[in-house]
């Protein structure tokens, strides 16, 4: 006896509202008694963490409790749909004992499911979860369960965090001493992205300000070229040297101050398999004649994955470098005070297909932030001063799957008379203006770096002198798809994103 699953019109990636159809194929070589054949659509979020190991030498260590060093496993059913493909309703009354004899051959049983939007961990939470014959107890604290959009498929950190979706078929046999036959069919899943807010002219930003060290004028004589007096020089040379008038030193150049901005559209949303909509702006704060040179540029996307298993928790950081350039020596405009770095360094580099959208489940959550490293030098004419300053700008972002909701769903949400609100109900605040006047004389002190990070609130307007009408933000929770979904809404049409859910191991924090 064997059973397998064959999907009809299989997709590379499934998403919400999709129909997944197929058939369970039962192959027999001899007559078999069968009670029922069940097919289930399941999704589970599994975390596995190891506690702190004990002290190998036993000297001076704190004696830990057994639960602190044990390996904990936590499993949540985020999706659970079941259907009995055999027997049919009209056959159940014909067999009072519920036992059916199948003849040798191949038997097919069609099935079909429709993916929901939100997870069903609270509604379908078994006390004991059976995985591969191992009985694992599900957590009993119901406060830890969240009901949000179904998470994407994930397999990362050496099996510490696993989110998987599968079709499972079970052949139930009447005799207790005969094992039930089971099979699973795994497939990738990528959720529909939330409704995006209306486009606006605002930007979220991160900012750093720097003041280069004061330097002398290039026309000033080099002190190393002036020879000190020597006792072996002739008297006439000594007399000539003593009568020569000292050359007055040239006045130092005005201290050069710059401001580095990294900006993203507001709210800060980036999309899987698409380039970053990033702008990097360098602003000269004062009227220094020095030129600014771009020496180093690195842009990376950092994923922060929090994994929990009962009383254990671990934070994993993984970095994806989008571009990294060094020894660039790109001279920025010296006429304009506001200089924007050419987007050609990153505009044609999409996010890798291993980047999963932001999500949160009961035991696994993932968020992202963008790190932009900018290295600057300055100089006058063809001469470049040796000082190199590297600044890191950090911007929290939300990663969307790129699978837009169908128009019928958006129309259903509009018909519900609930306004579409921004992802965060934080009123925008204007950043402090950068002074365009030279700093006072005290600014020439040895302090050369003034870090200023202004992205405490991610939703901020463009840091310009122009004013634009602010769009209203409603002080209420954003709408969910569950409030507007209808059974008549069809699946998403169009191409799906390329997504590879298996990732490598990353460093652990905490």
Number-wise, the strands total 26
Oligomeric grouping of the chains: single chain
Question: Rg from C-alpha positions?
Answer: 33 Å
Molecular shape: elongated
What is the first-to-last residue Cα distance? 49 Å
- Describe the sheet with the most strands: 9 strands, mixed
How many helices in DSSP terms?
5
DSSP helix fraction: under 10%
- Broad structural category: mainly beta
Give the percentage of residues in beta strands: 35-45%
Which regions contain 5 or more consecutive residues with pLDDT less than 50?
219-226, 241-248, 419-478, 504-510
Average of pLDDT: 77
Protein architecture, described:
With 510 residues, the protein is mainly beta. Helices cover 6% and strands 38% of the residues. It contains five helices and 26 strands. The protein has helices spanning 66-69, 89-92, 235-243, 407-415, 481-484; strands at residues 2-8, 19-28, 32-34, 36-50, 71-86, 100-102, 105-114, 128-131, 134-137, 154-156, 161-172, 181-187, 203-211, 257-265, 269-271, 279-284, 291-309, 312-325, 330-331, 338-340, 359-360, 364-380, 383-384, 389-400, 449-450, 508-509. The strands form six sheets. Strands 15, 17, 18, 19, 21, 22, 23, 24 and 26 form a nine-stranded mixed beta sheet that branches. Strands 4, 5, 10, 11 and 12 form a five-stranded antiparallel beta sheet that branches. Strands 20-16-14-13-25 form a five-stranded antiparallel beta sheet, with no helix packed on it. The longest helix is centred in the middle third of the chain and has 9 residues, at 235-243. The radius of gyration is 33 Å and the shape is elongated. The model is unreliable at 219-226, 241-248, 419-478 and 504-510 (pLDDT under 50).
